[in-house]
Every structure is written in C-alpha cells, then in structure tokens.
What we know:
This protein is mainly α. It has helices at 2-13, 16-24, 29-40, 43-47, 52-67, 85-89, 92-101, 128-143, 151-160; strands at 103-104, 107-109, 112-114, 117-118.
Amino acid sequence: MLRKMQTKFRKNLGSHRLLNKFIVGNYSKFTFIAIILAANFPFLYFAFSFDKEKAKKLYIEQCSKCHRKDGRGIKGVYPPLKNSDYVQNGDKIELLRGMIFGRSGRIIVNGEVYYGVMTTEVDKNLKDEDIAMILEYVYKELNNLDIKVTAEDVVKAKKLGKLPPHK
Length: 167
C-alpha cells in the first residue's frame, strides 16, 4: 500500500527528491500520509472546518425572528437556544426534525414551561449542509458544545419526518 501511495505522490508532486525527503528524512509515515491526503483531497479541509460567519448569518436569517440574534428567546413565548438545557441534553436528530418540520406541544426549557407551535423558519430551499451548519452554530456558539452536525444527519432527520407533539 505504501508503494502505491509513493507512486501517486510522485505523480502528483513530480519530485523524487521531495518524496525521498519525506520518506527518508525526519518525517513520520503519518505526516507522509497527511501530505498525500492534502495533495489529493483538498476538499477534506472544508469538510472538517466550521464557517462561523456563514453559520451565524444563516442562524440570524432562519431563527432569530423568534429566538433572537443572541439566542435568548422571549421568556414564556419563544424558548432560549443559548445555554439551553433542551439543546444541551436533546438528541441531535430530534432537534433537526424540529427545525425542519416544526414542533408543537408543551416543553420545558431551563425550568420554564413553553406551550405553542414552532412553525419552522428553516427555508425549504436550504441545502442540507446549511441546515446542519445552523444547528452546529447553536451547539458551538450558543452552548459551548463541540458537537459536529453533518448533512447526513439532516438527511436522516428528513427521512424520519415530523415529530409527534410534546405532551
């Protein structure tokens, strides 16, 4: 396998001396593999990065009308998303289903009871990656949680459909 990777590396970077430096020099096999991945799959960087500014913009466009720009909501009317026990203890897929399809019934957030209907504000034309980015923003920026949300999570939530009302 290493031989195949060396050949591919040599073809892509075209320098036998550079290849020898990485294999013979002070570099580990892990570094060599990381360089091959970076050279051949630059999109991997973007797959693992979080664009905070884009996520914030999407959150403001899609969620701030009710939950406010700072995520604090309106007490008794719209529950907070910032420092929210409902978000922190909630299931990621369930939260996505609520974002996509809406939610109704009684919920308790940070000890406060909320009754009502959450008609979803998430635009049906958003890409799955953008929907995932919004929830990841809520996790990271509003709750200090390092939870990754992917487009695959959004697809799974869409397949499961609308949530039953809270009781």
